[in-house]
Amino acid sequence: MTLAQLQQLALAGDIHELNLLSLEGGFYVLQALTADGNARLEDDQGRVSHLRSLDHARFVLREVPELPLYLVQFSAYDEMVGMAPRSESPLKVKVSARALDG
């Protein structure tokens, strides 16, 4: 979903929450949860948008109505090659979608 589509769905009240997924390599992916499932933020060419930080996500979301936003960190052990999957849930912390300094 593009940023314009995200904004339209948010205005219509069709987005339940946003998850900022922290991924290996130091980048983040924004995932929207809707009644139809999950959708990741993409650019106009259909490529998944890689964000640099929580502040970068806040900047990108500045025109989008405020929604519940969670920072999600998966276990590093789940990403290790050859390790058995663990049943632990990822760390999910609610954060403000707006910068603290206004």
From TrEMBL:
InterPro entries in UniProt: DUF6482
Pfam families listed in its UniProt record: DUF6482
Protein name: Cation transporter
Species in which this protein is naturally found: Pseudomonas kuykendallii
